Amino acid sequence: MRRALLAITGLAASTTALVVFKGSPGTSQVAQNLPTAQPVNPTPQEVEPSADPSGGAPKPSETADAPPSPKATKSTGRPSGTRTTTKAAPRTTTKAPQSTTRRVTGNGFDNEYGYVQVQIVVSGNRIVEAVALSLPSGGESDIHSGDVRNRYDGRGGEVVQKQNANLNTVSGATETSNSYKQSLRSAIEQAF
Fold this sequence. Notes:
It is built from 5 helices and 4 strands, in the order ααββββααα. Helix content is 34%, strand content 14%. Strands 1, 2, 3 and 4 form a 4-stranded antiparallel β-sheet that branches. The protein is α+β, with helices and mostly antiparallel strands. The protein is rod-shaped and about 95 Å long.
């Protein structure tokens, strides 16, 4: 019940405000005081002699179609008690560009010495780093995996230098090198 009463009161108030605004003398005076369009070079047919009792020359600013302009009156342009609102200028914000750096992990591959998986870091359309997430370990595999890691991994490794999976095979670690290349190839395919 209370909501209905508030809704009706609000509707009545807004309607009253609209009628007052639309029907106020200030707004109609503003529209009447606007200059009418006049021809730049009026022809003699458009000029009508004025009804000046002194017998003066006709006024070129008066035409047959134009009504006499009303006297200028002081108007406020809006009725008292109303608010004017202005739109704020659109805010321009500069968003920091989103980082295009992303990590892409290749598929893992098993060989007779162990499991190999590679992850690359890509910035834009370039590989900026390569990391072996998993390499064979134990015994001599530690030494060979270390050689593979030293040759291929990092920001200055062969992967970053060549920007592809066509890497030179590490001597003594052929199986691990081949598995590294396969995992790298799958990461590159996912990234690009």
